[in-house]
Each structure stands twice: as C-alpha cells, then as structure tokens.
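Hi all, posting the design record for the shared folder.

TITLE: backbone redesign
STEP: 1 of 1
STRUCTURE INPUT:
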C-alpha cells in the first residue's frame, strides 16, 4: 500500500481536513487522486477519505475491484456527512431574522433571512411549495446560513404573505371569509395569485431586497417559479436547484399566449369570487383545512414518518385560519397557467446556459423521479441526485443531505468547476456513462441515520432510468402485499 498522504487545505470560508489513502498529489491547492492508477482495470484499492467542516462529508470505502465497478456501471461506498448544527453540543446555528417588504399597496412579502454577516459569501434564495412558506426552510436557514447569505420567502396569497386587508368590499357584516364581498377594492383590481405574479414577486425580491444575482432553489411549485425566473431573467440567477419541482401548474389558459381560448372561461381567479365559486370553495376548504386532512397530506409526502413535522403542521394549520386563506386558495386554483410552460422555461434556460442542479426524493408520490429524469434528458450536463428514502420535500425530510449537496454544488460553480461535484471527490472518470451510488450516513438527535444517494451521469440512459423507476415501484408494491 502506498504511504499515507495527509494535506490540510483551506478553501475560501469553508476550511476542512482531508485524509486520503492512495497515491495522491497536491495540484493548485486541490487534492487529486492519481487518475492513471484509478483507471487501471482489475486493481484493488482501499479508499478512506475524511473531510471535516461545514461543507464536506467523509467517504469510507472498503477494498473494491475497480474492474467490477466499471462492468456494473455503478460505484459504491459510504459517505459520512455532518448533521445539522446541534446547539446542545456547542455548535452554533445561524440566527434567523424575519421581515417583510410592501411590494405593492396591501401586497406585503414576508421573508426570512440568515447569515447576513457573511458579506463576501454568495446569496442563496429558497422558494416554497404550495401551501407552506419560508418556515419550511428553517433547516436550511440555520445551517447554510453559517456559510452563505440565505433568504426564504412566502409567495403572495400563501404563508405570511396573505393580504392584510379584505380585497373586496362587504355590504353586510357577517362575512367570515375575505374575498367573498361585492366588488374588488382598487388595490385588488385584477389581482390573481398566479405563476406570473410569483415570478414578478421573486424578481422584485432579488433586485430590491437581495440586490445581486442569487443561487435559487425551489421545492415543488417553488421549483417551477425558480426555473421561470431563470428563463426570463437569467442575469439574476447564478444557478437553479430543483427539489422535486412540479412540471405543471395552472389548469386554465393564459390570456397572453391564448387570448381567444382564455375568453371561454368566465372567471380566472380575480376578486371577488363568483357566487358559485364561493359555495364550492367553502365546501372544499372545510375539508382540506381540517387538521386531520393536513396531517394525512404530510403523511403522504414524507416517506420517513419518523421525521418531526410538528412545526410544519402547526404553521400550516395557523395559516388556514387566516380570513383571506380560503379565497386566496380559490384564486390560486383558478388562476391561468404561466406565459411559459415548464418545458419552455427549461428550453430557455438551456439556451442561456443557466446552471441547473436536480435533487429528487425517490419516493415522492406526487412528482416522482421520472420527472427529474426527463429534465436530465433535456439537460444532460445538469447534476441529478436521487435520495432514498425521501419523499416530496427532501429539504425538510433529509436536510443534512440536501445541505451537503447544495454546499458542494455552489462550491463547484464558484470555483469555475475546479471543485468537484459532490460524490465525485474521488475522481471517477467514466461517471458520465453510469451512475454513482453512495450510502450517506449522518448524525441526527444523537442517533446515526443513513440514506441512499445516486448521482446520474450526463450520458446515463433516460429509458434505463425509467425502467429502474418502474422496477423500484413494482418492488415496493410487492413488498407491501407480501405477508
């Protein structure tokens, strides 16, 4: 075995220590394994990589036959990554501050931020999914805020960005819900909670609050909005991270791109709600705002039911009690689609060379990995990470993994590609043709927890991935039915 080589390297504001067994060399302040040795078929190698610090994990691999790895097209090892900051052990978490900004009359944007003292660090903006808000990114704000300047916002019509006044005039005094009045207030005339409104809202936050281009990440609906902003304003975006992004939103035609077709629909989410829509909204809202229904939905979207969702649950319940929540929900449901479809936004991003990274929970019942693999097919060079077990909200279910990947991806882009992508630290040369598999282990509340993580190469077959997804689904169904 070659001599043990140990180098201590400092990267920007993220110091770490690396210990590597194998023949290594130090080049331009980066520890790079000897690729001529790595690529030799049939050679057995022992890898033991330890990385300490906020950004990096540890790779622990047993002796492995590299020839067999290349035949299988998949490499395997274990990666030990840091957990979330544990203040009980003396680890300091980034402090979160909450604020708001009036964008337009009576339209106030709530946002949370952390790490504002990291003046030279990149800016990161998180966009929430439908029905939640900035509170869903608490684990990113407290952790990533130690190294970056981090923001998370609430979309208008959701979270704490609901209106502070009734958008309609009321003739009687017995109206329970805002937005059910006789006519719209002047400030709410033509107000619709739509994709186009949210895209404009995020543009405002980036330009007027953050004041510089950002790394933008979005879960579900937030992923669509993040991609939409990057497609129409690429100069404001340094990179997009899609977390189980929904590729569809809005059931009705957009009046700009389909003016004739849109006129066939008499109501498009404006205020006040028409009488028939009010009755329908009351019936639906009574069901979906019930705490038992909310708990059931969370049970669906979180694969690991040991995840503590008490805070998320209580905040969602609190939001549903706002007098504007029901009418805002109706406006969102009947709002037209965006001027750009998800596919069109993706094509524009590809044309403008927007950096995109994909992080998907494999067990998502709503936006399964097949949608992430379709994006990967359109943008082969976009890193695509798949996490299991994880559902629709991987950033909250496995925040340790998502934060680890976010740090690594941002470092990769900030270094101009000099820093390797997460899972590529040991220098696989043929990963483009295959996928890399790792078992990720991390501490959580005094326990060790582990998940599986895959990185798909740029030339990995889309149809092979589809076949694997169907096969995995079949196995899960079969196991549930087995005695």
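Okay, here is what came back for every position:
SEQUENCE:
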């Amino acid at each position: 075995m070659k001599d043990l080589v140990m180098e201590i390297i400092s990267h920007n504001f993220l110091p770490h220590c690396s210990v590597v067994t194998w023949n290594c060399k130090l080049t331009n302040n980066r520890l790079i394994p000897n690729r001529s040795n790595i690529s030799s078929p049939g050679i057995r190698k022992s890898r033991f990589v330890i990385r300490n610090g906020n950004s990096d994990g540890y790779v622990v691999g047993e002796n492995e036959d590299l020839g067999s790895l290349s035949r299988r097209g998949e490499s395997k090892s274990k990666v030990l990554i840091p957990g979330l900051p544990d203040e009980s052990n003396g680890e300091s978490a980034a402090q979160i501050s909450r604020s708001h900004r009036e964008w337009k009359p009576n339209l106030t944007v709530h946002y949370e931020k952390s790490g504002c003292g990291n003046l030279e660090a990149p800016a990161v903006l998180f966009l929430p999914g439908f029905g939640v808000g900035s509170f869903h990114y608490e684990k990113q704000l407290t952790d990533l805020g130690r190294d970056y300047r981090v923001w998370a916002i609430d979309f208008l019509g959701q979270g704490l960005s609901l209106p502070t006044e009734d958008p309609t005039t009321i003739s009687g005094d017995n109206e329970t819900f805002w937005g059910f009045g006789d006519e719209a207030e002047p400030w709410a005339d033509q107000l619709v909670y739509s994709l186009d409104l949210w895209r404009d809202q995020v543009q405002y936050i980036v330009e007027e609050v953050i004041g510089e281009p950002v790394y933008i990440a979005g879960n579900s609906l937030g992923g669509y909005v993040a991609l939409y902003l990057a497609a129409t304003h690429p100069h404001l975006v340094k990179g997009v991270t899609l977390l189980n992004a929904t590729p569809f939103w809005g059931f009705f035609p957009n009046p700009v791109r389909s003016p004739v077709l849109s006129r066939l629909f008499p109501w498009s989410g404006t205020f006040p709600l028409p009488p028939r829509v009010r009755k329908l909204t009351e019936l639906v809202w009574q069901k979906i705002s019930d705490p038992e229904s909310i708990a059931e939905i969370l049970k669906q979207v979180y694969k690991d039911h040991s995840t503590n969702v008490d805070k998320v649950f209580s905040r969602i319940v609190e939001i549903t009690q706002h007098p504007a929540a029901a009418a805002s929900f109706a406006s969102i449901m009947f709002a037209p689609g965006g001027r750009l479809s998800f596919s069109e936004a993706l094509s524009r991003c590809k044309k403008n060379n927007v950096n995109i990274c994909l992080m998907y929970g494999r067990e998502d019942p709503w936006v399964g990995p097949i949608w992430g693999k379709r994006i990967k097919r359109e943008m082969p060079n976009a890193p695509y990470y798949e996490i299991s077990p994880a559902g629709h909200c991987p950033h909250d279910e496995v925040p340790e993994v998502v934060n680890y990947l976010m740090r690594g991806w941002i470092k990769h882009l900030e270094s101009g590609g000099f820093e390797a992508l997460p899972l590529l630290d040991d220098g696989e040369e043929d990963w483009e043709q295959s996928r890399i598999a790792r078992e990720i282990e991390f501490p959580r509340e005094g326990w060790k927890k582990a998940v599986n993580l895959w990185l798909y190469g740029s030339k990995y077959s889309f149809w092979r991935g589809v076949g694997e997804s169907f096969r995995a689904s079949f196995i899960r169904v079969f196991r549930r039915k087995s005695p």
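COMMENT: The two ends are 49 Å apart (CA to CA).
Let me know if anyone wants the other runs.
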